[in-house]
Amino acid sequence: MSQPQTDDPLQLVAGELNAIGQRLSYLGSVLQTHAAAQAQQQAPQPAAPQPAAEPAAGDPTAAEAADAQPKSQLPPYPKQDTAKAVPRRRLRADFEPGRVLAWGGGGITLLGVVFLLVLAVQQDWIGPVARVGGGAALAALLIAAGWWVHHKAAEQRIAGIALASTGFAALFLDAVAATALYRFLPVAVGLGAGLAIALGGLLLADRWRAQVLAVGVVLGSAICAPLITTAPTAPLVAFLLLLQVAATPVQVRRGWNGLALVAGFPAVLAALIGTIYSLGFPNDALTLSIFAASVLGVVVAAITAGARPDAERTNIGLLVASPAPAFLAGPLLLERVEATATGAGMTLLLAAIWAVGRYFPAFTEWLSGRFLTATGAMALVAAAQATASALDSSSWATALLCEALVLAIAGYSLRRGGILLGSAVYALVGFWIAVANEAPISAMLWFREGTGVPGLVAGLLITAVAVALPVAGAGIGKLGRLPGSMAAWAVALIAALYGTASAIMAACLLVSEARGAFLAGHILITLCWVIAAIAMLLRGVRIKHLRIGGMVLTAVALAKLLLFDLATLDGFARVIAFLCAGLFLLTAGVGYARLLGREARSS
User: Fold this and answer.
1) Which of 125, 292, 515, 534 could staple 588 via S-S, CB 3.0–4.6 A?
2) For the region Disordered, what residue ranges are annotated (predicted)?
3) How far apart are CA 338 and CA 288, in angstroms?
4) Residue 11 has what pLDDT?
5) What is the pTM of this model?
6) Burial grade of 456 (CB within 10 A; 0-12, 13-18, 19 or more)
7) Distance between CA atoms of 549 and 489, rounded to whole angstroms?
């Protein structure tokens, strides 16, 4: 008979072991049967008896006698108790009746305390001092009761945590009432009391190993603190920073992701709101606390990432969110020099963390690769913010393209594909800004005033970056399929063509602003494209991508010659363009044929 269903793990394990024993007994009986059959076959057979007469058809006695002959049968498979083999599905631990009753009772008790205080105020039963003192005494009794229940029996642990959480919540409300409602305490003292309450709750949660208590205490203090300050001021941001610092050792020691989130993000949110608040009510202390929150958040994220590499997503989330207030506050609240300095400082901090994690042997195993990748990406964002703060919008394209070129060289030297990816992002943004400002496409399509030195510099930088990026990527081979991707080489080729054309046209119009300079610029653009195509073809005898790029560039140069130059140029300019392009192509054809013959003979 099956046993009643139960959720006891020991009984479940006993049921599984019983089922395994039944299966082993069945296999043993099968092996014994086969061994007996083999023994009978190997024994000497007696003289064959005279064959009996076959039973007559329809004789029931003979049929029963035939059925009575012994046959080798396998033992039946033992029936298993399905009630033991398939345990009953349990409720989620968060929705067990004990937890629901404990937390529901704690919430109702807290509401009762609030309603009691409200009724006491309305009926004027007791004075403000007695209300605050009574609330503190009731909260202390709840915490003491939680301590007693928690240590009385292990099965009452949830009830003890719920009582303690209710007591700490009541203490937070009492501190808010004493500070914001009755003005018994200054704001700084009220925040200090709230911090002391949070520290006590964190110590108790660490002792009990109760993450839910720690999260509740930190979240409760973060919610009650704005009620004390009544505005996103510097003391509020400082309080949340101290709260994050206080929670860091506990969450690192116990590995509590929830505590890391509720301790880190309130400080970031307060700093962001404080930045918007400072636009209407400027305050130097608030501005300083905003930048301190960003720096401290990055440092705490790095420490947490080193101590707890298993919580990679949480650490990366804190790292990405922490510098956001500094990025927003720098351009909005500070002067250009100060905003540039703060952006550069954040860049140096993030770059230092990245460099320490990558190149210092003592820390190479301390920080994960993904965290370091996120750190490098945030360093690039900080550098872009510092660049935008330092320069006018008219110089952004030149600065970004210069930084992209430097990053491409650094990525090739350090053999880091992530740096090349950052260079590509800088180059893409700088290219589009240059197309909108320094090197517009209209300057090459219609004759007008030239783009001057900025257009010349932007064109040269676009060409240099377009050449450096794919060459560096192919050299280090760290970008997966990117060095061998035709799309990447095509994008680089288009950018190089555009940069070359912009630089040539800007240089020609710098020499002379007449229409002849515009026509000469187009002749030189076509010839430069033809020469570049020939060089790529001659170099691409052994390199596939260069050979294909040379063919494409030849087609582009011929298309420009026939579709644009033929319609735009006139007279002697048209003759020079066509003659020079044709002679170059003929010479290149002869040289390419010789190279192919030489390669064929050498192979």
Assistant:
1) 534
2) 35-89
3) 12
4) 65
5) 0.71
6) buried
7) 8
Alpha-helical runs (H) found in 209-323: 211-229, 234-254, 257-280, 284-307, 312-321
Cα 158 to Cα 168, 206, 217, 471: the distances in Å are 15, 15, 16, 63
Q: Report H helices in 437-485.
A: 442-445, 452-476
Question: Two tokens at 355?
Answer: 């460099």
Q: Which amino acid type is present at position 516?
A: G
How far from 595 is each of 391, 472, 534, 537, 581, CA to CA, in Å?
50, 27, 13, 10, 21
The pLDDT of residue 84 is 45
Instruction: Enumerate residue ranges in the chain where pLDDT < 50.
Output: 1-7, 46-72, 74, 77, 80-95, 478-483
Q: Please compute, for residue 269, the number of CA atoms within 13 A of its CA located in the half-sphere on the CB side.
A: 11
**With contact defined as beta carbons under 8 Å apart, do 501 and 557 qualify?**
no
Spatial distance between the Cα atoms of 469 and 483, rounded to a whole number of angstroms: 9
Retrieve residue 569's tokens.
Answer: 């140029």
The residue whose two tokens read 């195509």 is 533
541, two tokens: 């005898």
**Cα angle at 391 between 385 and 397, to 5 degrees?**
80
Selection from 90, 94, 113 nearest residue 102 by Cα: 94
Torsion of CA 240, 242, 245, 247, to 10 degrees: -70
